[in-house]
Design brief:
With about 280 residues, the protein is mainly alpha-helical. It contains 10 helices and no strands.
Length: about 280
């Protein structure tokens, strides 16, 4: 990876992260997107449109004394990291420029999904719908074999179907356990947004690769849940067995691992295939 890739990743990540932050401030509330603002509504113009630059320039606080949340610079750093990850994979596998463009679009959408899911426990259909269209166009334009679009469509169906079963299974388990405990359990392992996101991942990867992404997602989700339990035990003196946990970031991580580094990821998940 060259210095150009690094500079591009920084610029692209800052722009994508700033846009994701602006959309995350409005879309969950069904409000039209606006220019970046402080929590009190004061506009952030020029270089202050970037949360990262706002913090670095010491302008975190508005004229009314309201501080910008740490989510803003962290989102841009996330977008930079995902872009670097993507560009590094593109140089390793020497993929086409068109495919890299689609991957970078996915980075922007994945960053937005992660931010909204982490903050609101929502994956919005207004983000998923255009994502679906883009994945289909990707399959049509960059396919290396005649049946790529068929693979993508089957992958979408498999991804949606598998997570739909998990979604309903989790809801049924919570219902039965709630009846046994005499207390309703309102939180489930998967939300319906996770089902829609899994369908998109299936479209991106195709059904065969999706299966490995699903395994990676489950392992990452288990590791994340364990980390949360340990954190709550150490710093909060206990944990809630049915506390809500956003699952979208784990789906995204599993998808990107298989999308960008398929050989290494599959070899790690299934050691026998590495021989």
């Amino acid at each position: 990876m060259t210095i150009f890739h690094i500079l591009f990743a920084i610029v692209y990540g800052v722009i994508v992260g700033a846009i994701a932050n602006a959309l995350a401030d409005e879309l969950p509330y069904q409000r039209p997107p606006t220019m970046p603002r402080y929590p009190d509504g004061e506009a952030r113009r020029g270089m202050l449109m970037s949360g990262l630059l706002t913090f670095l320039m010491g302008k975190r606080t508005s004229s009314q004394g309201n501080k910008l949340d740490f989510r803003h610079p962290l989102t841009e750093l996330l977008a930079i990291a995902l872009t670097l990850w993507t560009l590094n994979a593109s140089t390793i596998y020497q993929v086409s420029a068109v495919q890299v463009i689609f991957w970078l679009i996915y980075v922007a959408l994945f960053a937005l999904i992660i931010v909204i899911d982490m903050e609101h426990h929502l994956i919005l259909i207004v983000v998923i719908n255009p994502f679906v269209i883009i994945t289909v166009v990707d399959a049509l334009l960059t396919g290396r074999q005649p049946d790529t679009i068929i693979e993508a469509l089957i992958g979408g169906a498999v991804g949606y179907g598998v997570f739909f079963i998990l979604f309903n299974g989790g809801a049924f388990f919570a219902y039965v356990l709630g009846k046994l405990r005499g207390q309703a359990i309102t939180e489930v392992a998967f939300g319906f947004g996770d089902v829609m996101l899994a369908g998109v991942v299936g479209l991106v990867l195709g059904w065969k690769a999706f299966l490995f992404a699903m395994v990676a997602t489950i392992l990452l989700g288990a590791a994340g849940a364990l980390a949360i339990i340990i954190y709550q035990r150490i710093f909060k003196g206990g944990y809630s067995a049915f506390a809500a946990m956003p699952y979208g970031p784990y789906i995204v991580a599993g998808a990107m691992l298989v999308m960008l580094y398929p050989n290494q990821t599959i070899a790690f998940l299934v050691p026998a295939l590495a021989r």
